[in-house]
Every structure is written in C-alpha cells, then in structure tokens.
Amino acid sequence: MRRVLLYINPVLRLGSRRYSFLFPFFGTLVFCILVEVYAYFIVKDPNAIGVLAIVIFLALVIYFSFRDGVLGGLVATTITIAYYFYIIYTRNYTGERLASGLETTIFLGLVYCSLAGTIGWLKQAVDILIEREADERKRLQTVIAQLPVGVIVTDSIGRVIQVNSQVESILGTKVPLGFRMGEESLLEFRSNGKVVVPSHSSLAKALASGRAIVGREVMVKRKDGKDVYLQVNANVVRNKKGKVIAAASIINDLTAQKEVDMRKDDFVNMASHELKTPITSMKLYIDSLLLGVKNLNTARVIKIVHSLKNQTERLQQLVSDLLDVSRLQTGKLSITKEMFRLDSLIEETLDMVQVSPDEARVIFAKKIPVEIYGDKFRIYQVLTNIITNAIKYSAQGAKVIVRIKKSGGRAVVSVQDFGIGIAKEQQQKIFERLYQVVDDKEKTFPGFGMGLYISKEIVKRHRGSIWVESQKGKGSTFYFSLPVQVNKD
Ligand code: ADP
Fold it and tell me: Which single residue of 7, 38, 343, 422 has CA 20 to 30 Å from 262?
C-alpha cells in the first residue's frame, strides 16, 4: 500500500528525477475509456460529457506535469487532444458545431501545453534543487563522519539531529537521534570537579547565549568505569536573518594526552627520587670518610669506597638511560654492528649481574652457539635490563632461567622468572616510554620505566622483536628475537 502511495503521490516524488512516459500515457488513456463508458453506458448520452471532459483532463495534465515533469504533462496533453478529436469524429460534429469543437480543442491544446510546460519545468527545477541540497547534506555528513573528533549537531531546541560514530567511541555509549541535550544526561559530566547539569552543557549554553563556548574541559565517567577527559567546543548556526537554526558541539578526547602528562609528572617525581637516593647515600659515605678518615681502618675505608663506587654506577646508569631515551626521541641512538657470539654475550652478562653470591640464581639453561650481526653493547644493554628486571620483580632467591634457541632464521632469547607477573592489559604498555605498572605493591620497586622502552627500540633497530608472556602472580617470560643471517646493511 505504501509503495502504491509512493508511486502515485507526486509530493512524495519531489526530488526524484525519474520521469515516467508510460504512466501518464496509460493513465490518461484509462480516463478516456472511463469517460466513454460514462457517456455511453451510464448517462447513455454521448454528447453529455463536454464540461466533464475539460475538467477531468485539465486535472490530469496538471497531475502528470507535477508527477513526471514536462514529459508527463505533454504526454497527457497529446492523449487528451487526440481524445477530443476522437469525440468530434465519433459524435459526427458538422457545420458550426464542428468549427467551434475544433476551435475549443486547439485552444485547450494550447492551454494544456503551456500548463505542462510551466508546471513540468517548475517540478524539474525543484527536483534539481532538492537533489543539490541532498548532495550538499551528504557531503557534509561524510566530512562529519570522517572527522577525528566527536561531532553532535542539534536543532535550535537542542534535539540531536546528527552525531558521528566518534562520539560513541569517546563516550562509550550511543547518543540517540532526538535526544534532548539541554534536558537529559546520558552520563555524569564533571567540570572542575563539579557535576555539570544538562542545562549547563556546552551545547545548551551556546544555544541559550547564542555565543560560542570554546575549550571547555570536562571529565566523564563512562559506563565501563573509564574516566575520559574531553575538550568541548560548541557553537550555534544562524540563518541569513541571524536566527539560530542549529547548534554543533565538537568533542576532543584528551585522555591519552592527559595520561602522557600525568606520566611525565610521575616521571619527574620518580626521577628526582631515584637520583636523590644514591646522591644522599654518597653524601653520607663522604661525610663519614671526612669525619673519621684517620680513625677508620683500611678495610672500612675500602668498604665505604666500594659503596661509593656502587652508588656512582647506579647514578651513571640512570643518567645514561635518560640520555638513551632522549637519543631515541631525537633519532640519535647510534648502532654499530659487528659479528659476535650471542651465547657468549649472555654468559658475560650473567657474570656481571650476579655480583653477589646471594643473587646467584640465574641459570643459563640452554647453551647453543649462535652468531649474530649486531651492536654488542646495545644487545648487552637489552640482556642486562631484562635479567635485572627478572631478579628485581622476583622473590629473594627465586630462580631465573635464561634460554637461547634458533627458530626460523632467528635467535630467540628468553628470560623466565617466577616473580610477580604482569597483568594481561599491562603487557603491551610496559614497552612504552616511562610506563610503570601502577600497583601498590609494585610501586615499592625502584625504577624509571625506561629499560623496556630502550630495549624495544634497540631490538627494533636490529629488525628483531620483543614480547612478554606472563601471568599475574605466577611469573613472566620475556623474549627477544634477532635475525641470525648476516645482513650487513
Ligand atoms: P623499570 O625501571 O620500572 O623496571 P622497565 O621499563 O624495565 O622499567 O619496566 C617497566 C615495567 O614493567 C616495570 O615498572 C614493571 O612494572 C614491569 N616489569 C618489567 N619486567 C618485569 C618482570 N620480569 N616481572 C614483572 N613486572 C615486570
């Protein structure tokens, strides 16, 4: 039924530039037959249809011009005029009647033609305008859909008329069309810690004041519990007369940037703390040396100097890690490659990290000779970082197992520990710059969150990869693989 209505209702066809020939042709023909049936079989007077034939066909010409443009109007006109001639012929008009019949037919023909031309042309012009408008809207919709920010467009009373998919991914919930922005609230928005009521949302404010609201920062608690930080800009759209006809709100997700800022703040805190600890103990050692250098026996002096050396090395390590991060950022980390035995380097590393016999729990389980082409010092740095992490994040005396194997043209080194483990959602992030797992217990471990980032970048520059398999509470196995083929470029 709806389809029939859509087919015959000319208003619903506005904007559609499909103009039919057959529908006006057969439509008018059917009416000619109906009028004939009426004349011969209902009123039984073939000459009693004069006014009826004019009124009905005038209406048909207007209807078909409006439905099918100039073509439809002219088709209806042609059939009508042909029918009028048919009437003159079959009713045997003669003399004056024939002359006036012909005159009327020609006059009506001209009126119908001009009606078909005018109405049909108007209909076609409106179709072109509507199509152009629809194209324009489509273009705008595509641009809005592609924007990297969330966009909500409302009408002049704040009812949502358009919303792109970014809004849903930012807010974690759909904003339905028709939603009243100034009256309802989907989530709890906060600005400067205070809940923002719907009538104070940026969009509602822009609509109420008629002015742009720029750079307002709000925080939203999503339904999945995640806090997101947004920057919202809202403004009204006015027509030529200056009347507000719509409003738009642009939502920028600042969460990632906020996280980086927070991580930077944490980093500055941690860096100051990490650098302060060795400096404080060095100062204490120096003080005790200064105070009692004459009274101290050689063994005690040697012990203090050793401690001083350890703290200096720790400081040196921290500063060199910081330098490496900065070199990585500026692309200035140099890699000097040579052929060397990876298995021997692992043994050397183990000798270096196991300085105290208490920590002698790292086992090199699978030794096979593997020669690779790379930067020996940088690979040593990767090994040291992963192995010291394994020791640092394990209980005192727990085992750490280092293995090496060859697989698919690659040397794969694994370092397994039975320590605190890493939750699934943190496993990717720990390779990011300055990332440390935030957990009350783990906070007590000293560190900068730089080691794994530096390691990942070094391995990447050797065309290798680095990853972790871990279960929280059970332990972790860090892997890195490097190509064994000699590829000296
Ligand atoms: P850090 O100096 O903090 O150790 P890293 O970049 O070496 O920095 O490590 C980043 C984070 O990854 C650490 O803060 C820690 O939370 C986690 N991590 C690294 N290695 C292990 C491990 N073997 N077991 C558990 N957690 C680890």
Answer: 422
Q: Which residue has the CA at smallest separation from atom 19 of ligand 1?
A: 389
The mean per-residue pLDDT over the stretch 56-76 comes to 95
Burial (Cβ within 10 Å: 0-12, 13-18, ≥19) of residue 109: middle
Residue minimizing CA distance to atom 16 of ligand 1: 437
Where residue 294 falls among pLDDT bands split at 50, 70, 90?
Answer: low
User: 207 φ, ψ to 5°?
Assistant: -65, -40
Query: Cα separation of 236 and 215, whole Å?
Result: 15
Quick one: which of 355, 346, 320 has its CA closest to 448?
320
With bands split at pLDDT 50, 70 and 90, how would you rate the model's confidence at 288?
Answer: confident
Residue 475 CA: nearest ligand 1 atom is 24
Task: Find the residues whose C-beta lies inside 6 A of ligand 1.
Answer: 385, 389-390, 393, 417, 419-422, 430, 436-437, 442, 447-453, 476
Predicted confidence (pLDDT) per residue in 134-162, tens digit: 999 899 999 999 999 999 999 999 999 99
List phi, psi (to 5°) of 401: -115, 125
Structure tokens at 49: 């249809």
Q: How many CB atoms lie within 10 A of CB 335?
A: 12
Residue nearest to atom 8 of ligand 1 (CA): 449
